Amino acid sequence: MNLYDKYVLLYRYYEENNILETLLKSFNYFASEEITKIVREIGEVSPRLTPPGITEVKLKFERAWLGKADYTEREGISRVIYPNEARIRNITYSGPVYLEFSVYEDGSSKGKYVVNIGRLPIMVRSKYCNTYGLSEEELVEVGEDPNDPGGYFIINGTERVLVLSEELSTNRFYVQMENTSVKARGFLLAESLTAQYPHIIDLMKDGLLYLSFERYKRVPLILVIKALGLEKDAEIARFINEEDNFEETYINLLEFADVTTQKDALLKLANRLRLTGSDEIKIEKMKGILETKLLPNIGMGNSYNLLKAYNLCKMARKLLLLVHRKIDEDVKDHFMNKIVRTPGELMRELFRVIVRTVINDAMYQYDRLVRRGRIPQYTSIFRSKIFTERFESAMGTGVWTRERMGVSQTLDRTNKLSVLSHLTRVWSSIEGEAELLEARMVHGTHWGRLDPIETPEGKNTGLRKNLAIFSKISFEEYDKEEIIEVLRRIGLKIVS
């Protein structure tokens, strides 16, 4: 194939494929699917106070949706708006977000309500943008550039881009040698949470395994496993060792051989963490910690405890396999261990935080009106100004959840290539001042995914990259039951 044929092939490829397709799909998926999932995660809420004659009030959130981009004039007239008008008039290109919920008073349904909880910035050229589906002639007619690729937002007249974020993959454990010690380290994130919870398993020189999670440091791993309900030493040894015969497993089991029941393990663990109260209160506090703080990605509640115990055994086994040189340590720079977060995912994180704030404020407004002796109207307690201002502020300043900075940036409009370069830029979560040589170097798994050439000089070398022109990011979520069924068909069994 000569050079001309390669150019023709490249040209034909981009006739049928948009280089920014991933960005647009991620926003469409967030707006059409994930905002409803988030409000359903919240489930039901109840105000602390109720009007006279009513014992209990519950609001059950059912779905949410985003409307097309529009603008309301001072006269109160709402009309369709296009991106170019938003630029010229220095306004935000956004659409209304509606929330549907049912109200129950003393167990009886009082009907469904729909309320506008605020306005969400809309990605240009997404299916919620008013330019979606228009031909070149129609775009010119409404004052839009037919060659504009979209993939960005307009906040107060300024074009802003949510930069792709490269992070270490969550909900996975990584085992590495650190000086003379061995650690298994994981960052776990439950779907309903916004903070990452580091979990670390240490192997000490005396052969004992310790687990650190959230603010609880150096907790004996075997005690935690027994407190989760996996009580028998023989079962623990079977899950950790499998076909191997690790000496460290028996050292740990022997250390806590006197702990024979789950209740004993919970009490001993509570005393070690210096929990206060009677033995029964200590046990209940310990149960709450294990159910909510330990491995939140698996689930929260008593029904997930055994599954958490099995996973801890699996990670202890992986750690011991590394100690005995049966596996290699994990390479964090391998792209298998990385995730690139798209604009839709970044907005999902922010939406989850802000919508909870709006609902908590609505409950506060309900309580405040009840104190004044008034009967609150369910559609009037939601203040849309909170949602709108917080979203605009985050996207206008780049200050995001988990104390991240620079997530949103002003789009580089120097020329068309600079626009495409900025929209496909990938920022690492590592700070530029960090002296991590390996993280800055090109890894073999970057081939076909990241462009090793387009990286700046100076402190950000190797940390600021771009997607390769043919790379795509998968972001769809798959049904867990379907995955379990596929695993079952290839011969794996669910441990019961």
Automatic annotation (TrEMBL):
GO terms for cellular component: DNA-directed RNA polymerase complex. Residues 21-385 form the RNA polymerase beta subunit protrusion domain. Keywords: DNA-directed RNA polymerase, Nucleotidyltransferase, Transcription, Transferase. SUPFAM superfamilies: beta and beta-prime subunits of DNA dependent RNA-polymerase. Residues 207-341, 409-473 form the RNA polymerase Rpb2 domain. One of its GO terms (molecular function) is ribonucleoside binding. GO terms for biological process: DNA-templated transcription. Belongs to the RNA polymerase beta chain family. This is DNA-directed RNA polymerase.
